[in-house]
Amino acid sequence: MCDPVGMVLGAKLLVSFFDLGRACPIMEPKRGKSVLALPRSAGWRGAAVPATGWHHTLDGDTNNRHHDPDENEGENGSREHALSMPEGYPEPECKPPSFFGIPSWLVTFTKMSFDSRQVLVSCEHASNRLPEDMKAPPEIMALHIAWDPGALKIARRLAETFSAPLHAGEYSRLVVDLNRTIGNSVLVRRVSDGHRIPFNRGLRRSDVQRRIEDYYLPYRTAVLGAVEGIIQDRGRCVHLCIHTYTPQLGDNVRGNDIGLLYDPHRQPEAALVHELRDALIERTGLVVWLNRPYQGTADGILPRIREVYDAEAYVGIELEVNQRFAESPTELVDITDAFSGCVQDLCGWKERDGKQLMARKAS
Fold first, then answer.
1. Does residue 95 fall inside a structural domain?
2. Domain extent for 356
3. What CATH number is associated with residue 244?
4. Which of 31, 56, 96, 153 suits 356 as a labelling partner, its CA being 20 to 30 A distant?
5. Higher per-residue pLDDT: 113 or 172
6. Where are the alpha helices (DSSP H) in the chain?
7. In terms of Cα–Cα distance, which of 79, 91, 83, 93 is closest to 43?
8. Which of 79-88, 130-139, 287-296 has the lowest mean pLDDT?
9. pLDDT by residue (tens digit) across 77-88?
């Protein structure tokens, strides 16, 4: 005979099994929050945090150093520097969900309906240019601390492939970092990778605020507006955020060729990225790691946008490519085309869009 209690428990188990992305123990991001700046009620240190599932990160917390180990180096971590930074919002606490010890991406369906008109491409560290009133030695501005060499070439090619809008930073990240949240101690750096930044010494809070208003907010507003427009028109935005990283930072040699950054709490984003890694390895033979050399939930533009939209409406993937490929245009193109091809295959690329793509390449 059938056991009614057992049948009910079994049904609940199946629902949890196939819907773990929704059932994982983390508060779902809500619409209506500003991705530009989420101010706290008190100062930068020891501030009160709204009870939304996030935790406060002090300057010394390693969670605030995923993007650059030198974030708190020297003057960047000083009280004087902290006081010059506007108040902001802490970064999320990341504990990947699991189902009886099994990662959620293993037990969640991953196939997405996909349309080229859902794609948005951004490149925050595209340029090493400076505004006219800022000066620095050319040798400093040529370093990785000033920009992401090769990233703009990747972003432009992806935008062309998908016929997608492209948003690219106009000035160096040393002016103001478009990939950091207002309130982060390295939004404007005095020191980076051991180099003092001459045009950032002696900045007052008002100076930083002026840069935020002139350079930071217009970019963030434009990207968020593009995301909102795509979601309203197409139901989902697939945001490809493009960066490159230095092969070695201090004594730390990065062992991967490509990094795919994502949020392990969100589906179908998490499952898609795991499949994307396998496909990229098969196509390129390169070393592809997940959430390396940085964490996908570390402070940046994608985590802030994820706060605004639910996981079905917004899929954010950060592509990180080792900068050693920036010196080889052919290899950079091959990696870009492999990535776009894998995204198309795994997202159920529609036949008519595929024909349009082939036609563009043939021409």
1. no
2. 111-182+216-362
3. 3.40.630.40
4. 153
5. 172
6. 4-18, 20-23, 79-84, 138-141, 151-162, 205-211, 217-234, 269-284, 301-306, 329-346, 351-362
7. 83
8. 79-88
9. 444 554 444 544
